[in-house]
Design a protein that fits this description.
- It is built from two helices and six strands, in the order H-E-E-H-E-E-E-E.
- It is α+β, with helices and mostly antiparallel strands.
């Protein structure tokens, strides 16, 4: 399959002083109204392996990318650098099959549980977090 690269519709961004404007959306009205998008009209999408709970990667979705993800069984993102849609695995073969999608309590993040085929990271590692640990003081319960 060829990579999807349809340019997005420009989302309407509301300032703090103006009431929230819900952009024209392919999503059901209640879902579109519950999303809290950033100034570019995007929501963070945490991608997690459905059977092991591994956090694989973080991507970005606008309403169209989320609509495609919810209706095709494959994960679609919006590339902030290329300003286009891309469906995971179309060029690499490292496909993400959707198992479930949930919206967090604030409406500003998605949890997409997938069945990942191959590496999730463009560097070839299983997750985008492999080998990238930072030194941190750990806490403990009293």
């Amino acid at each position: 399959m060829s990579e999807q690269s349809t340019p997005p519709a420009t989302p309407a961004a509301a300032s703090a002083a103006e009431p929230a404007v819900v952009p024209v959306s392919p999503l059901p009205h209640e879902l579109a109204a519950s999303l809290k998008r950033d100034s570019a009209g995007l929501v963070a999408a945490v991608i997690q392996q459905f059977d092991t709970d591994e956090v694989l990667m973080l991507g970005w979705m606008d309403d169209e990318a989320l609509h495609r993800t919810l209706t095709t069984g494959r994960v679609t993102f919006f590339s902030r650098s290329r300003q286009e849609y891309w469906r995971k695995g179309d060029t690499s073969g490292h496909v993400q099959f959707v198992k479930s999608v949930a919206l967090d309590c604030d409406g500003d993040a998605l949890l997409v549980r997938v069945d990942q085929v191959g590496a999730a990271c463009h560097t070839g590692t299983r997750t985008c977090f492999d080998g990238r640990s930072l030194a941190a003081v750990t806490g403990e319960r009293d």
